[in-house]
């Protein structure tokens, strides 16, 4: 049975129980309740958990969230891919711990957590980024529930709503593409080539970094995409649909031949200081380009534009490629296969703003045809 006493202006409860693991008597106390009724309500809940043999929940509810997240990463981090672990660590250390880390694991309310999510949205983070942060947090909380540190995950059903999300889509308009590529032409040649490859092929950054000269078929004007490369090495794409051969236009062919010649001249220029690499995308001295290097290239081109274009990532050039194809009248199945999407539905979901835009025009064409 719980006992209660008033300490100053607040109330305290005390519950004595036997730890089933050790057989020893233990005591659970908590103070700071404004009224005796509040203390009685929580004490009753604790006694219920003790009756249901949920001793682990009682013992661990004082755990600080920061400590649990770090322990979760340490113990269970090896069970996910290296890239996934890096992402989890980055978001936990950059966003979750600085904002929520001082809460006890059982004291973070759903409304306080919702405020945290709302703050991320207000700071301008993309909906996908906020969803990723929420997913990481819930994965850690679900493990705590599984280990009986918590009775349930109360953070389900959180609202992640980004207003005017379509306006924040990461791509350039046709006019902006001209401005962007004009700035690229005034940049180092390998910067221009990186921008041109991403824009004209729609391939992912990692797919471009994994390209070798053997992947380019100059005669048939195609490029084979069979792998992806990151700062953690080379691996096969996640899905079979990502392994594909796509056509490239005459302009891209001419630029790649010019780029090949540029590399040969640099090899002579740098002599013994030249780094031989098996990859197509390299720096002037032959060193391999990495993920961060590509990001810096795109950022530097943006800074050279005559007007201040909104920020766009390397992946945004992939989106731009898809948008330009759809706007030029390309079939969505062709676009889906070219991008290496798993399904046409995936393509349609991502570019619904474009397909809706041309729905009215297509209906007018149908009306004109039937008339």
Automatic annotation (TrEMBL):
Q: Which organism is it from?
A: Peribacillus asahii
What keywords are annotated for this sequence in UniProt? DNA integration, DNA recombination, DNA-binding
Q: What is this protein called?
A: Site-specific integrase
Q: Which Pfam families match?
A: Arm-DNA-bind_4, Phage_int_SAM_3, Phage_integrase
Q: Where is the Tyr recombinase domain?
A: 167-364
Q: Which GO terms describe its molecular function?
A: DNA binding
Q: Is the DNA-binding keyword given for this protein?
A: yes
Q: Core-binding (CB) domain: from which residue to which, for each copy?
A: 63-145
Q: Name one GO biological process term.
A: DNA recombination
PANTHER family recorded: PHAGE INTEGRASE-RELATED, PROPHAGE INTEGRASE INTD-RELATED
Report whether DNA-binding shows up as a keyword of the record.
yes
InterPro entries registered for this protein in UniProt: AP2-like_int_N (IPR028259), CB (IPR044068), DNA_brk_join_enz (IPR011010), Integrase-like_cat_sf (IPR013762), Integrase_catalytic (IPR002104), Integrase_recombinase_N (IPR010998), Integrase_SAM-like_N (IPR004107), Tyrosine_recombinase_XerCD (IPR050090)
UniProt superkingdom: Bacteria
């Amino acid at each position: 049975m719980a006992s209660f006493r008033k300490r100053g202006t607040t109330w305290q409860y005390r519950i004595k129980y036997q730890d089933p693991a050790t057989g020893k008597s233990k005591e659970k106390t908590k103070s700071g309740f404004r009224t005796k009724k509040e203390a009685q309500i929580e004490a009753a809940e604790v006694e219920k958990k003790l009756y249901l043999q949920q001793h682990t929940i009682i013992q661990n509810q004082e755990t600080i969230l920061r400590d649990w997240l770090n322990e979760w990463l340490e113990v269970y981090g090896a069970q996910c891919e290296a890239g996934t672990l890096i992402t989890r660590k980055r978001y936990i250390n950059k966003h979750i711990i600085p904002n929520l880390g001082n809460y006890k694991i059982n004291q973070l309310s759903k409304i306080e957590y919702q405020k945290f999510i709302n703050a991320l949205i207000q700071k301008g983070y993309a909906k996908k980024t906020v969803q990723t942060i929420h997913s990481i947090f819930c994965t850690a909380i679900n493990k705590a529930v599984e280990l009986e540190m918590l009775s349930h995950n109360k953070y389900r059903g959180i609202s992640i709503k980004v207003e005017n999300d379509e306006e924040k889509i990461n791509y350039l308009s046709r006019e902006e593409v001209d401005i962007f590529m004009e700035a690229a032409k005034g940049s180092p040649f390998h910067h221009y080539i990186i921008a041109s490859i991403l824009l004209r092929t729609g391939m992912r950054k990692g797919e471009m970094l994994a390209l070798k000269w053997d992947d380019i078929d100059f005669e048939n004007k195609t490029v084979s995409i069979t792998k992806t490369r990151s700062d953690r090495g080379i691996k096969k794409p996640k899905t079979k649909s990502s392994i594909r051969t796509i056509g490239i236009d005459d302009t891209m062919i001419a630029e790649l031949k010019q780029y090949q010649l540029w590399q040969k001249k640099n090899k002579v220029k740098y002599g013994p200081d030249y780094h031989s690499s098996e990859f197509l995308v390299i720096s002037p001295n032959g060193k391999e380009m990495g993920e961060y290097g590509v990001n810096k290239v795109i950022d530097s081109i943006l800074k050279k534009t005559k007007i201040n274009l909104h920020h766009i990532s390397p992946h945004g050039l992939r989106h731009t490629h898809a948008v330009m194809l759809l706007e030029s009248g390309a079939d969505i199945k062709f676009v889906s296969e070219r991008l290496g999407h798993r399904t046409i539905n995936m393509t349609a979901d991502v570019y619904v703003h474009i397909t809706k835009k041309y729905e009215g025009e297509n209906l007018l064409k149908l009306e004109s045809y039937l008339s």
